[in-house]
Amino acid sequence: MLLAAIGIGAGTGLITPLAFAWLASATPEERLGQTMGAAELGRELGDAGGPVLVGGLAAAAGLAGGYAVLAVVVAAVAAAARRTPAVAE
Fold first, then answer.
1. Distance CA 36, CA 44 (A)
2. How far out from the chain centre does Cα 59 lie?
3. What is the spatial distance between Cα 55 and Cα 59, in angstroms, rounded to a whole number?
4. What is the pLDDT of residue 36?
5. Which residues of 32-64 are buried (b: 16+ CB within 10 A; e: fewer)?
6. pLDDT tens, residue order, the chain (89 aa)
7. Major facilitator superfamily (MFS) profile domain location, by residue (predicted)?
């Protein structure tokens, strides 16, 4: 479990700045503030909701169950983001 937590932390620490840099470079200048604000709101909701989700599930089904559900939720969000069409200019 400790190695999984370390992996999650390292992955988040690596992907967050890369994703924000890509998002900033792919966003028109006139929408940059709105886009980055929405992205930061989503990140903050994940930071707040993730521990609540995992903690509640860990209390009910054990820590492994909590991490398993978290992995499914993250995979579902990633799949939905891949299917979301890009906004045309």
1. 12
2. 22
3. 6
4. 92
5. eeeeeeebeeeeeeeeeebeeebeebbeeeeee
6. 788 778 878 888 888 889 899 899 999 999 999 999 999 998 898 888 888 888 888 898 888 888 888 888 888 988 887 887 765 45
7. 1-89
What angle is formed at CA 18 by the lines to CA 81 and CA 75, rounded to 5 degrees? Answer: 30
Q: How far apart are CA 62 and CA 55, in angstroms?
A: 9
Q: Which two tokens stand for residue 89?
A: 């200019």
Can you read off the two tokens belonging to residue 86? 């890009």
CA distance 21 to 35: 12
**Contacts of 25-32 spanning 24+ positions with Cβ under 8 A:** 28/89
pLDDT at 37: 93
CA 23 to chain centre: 14
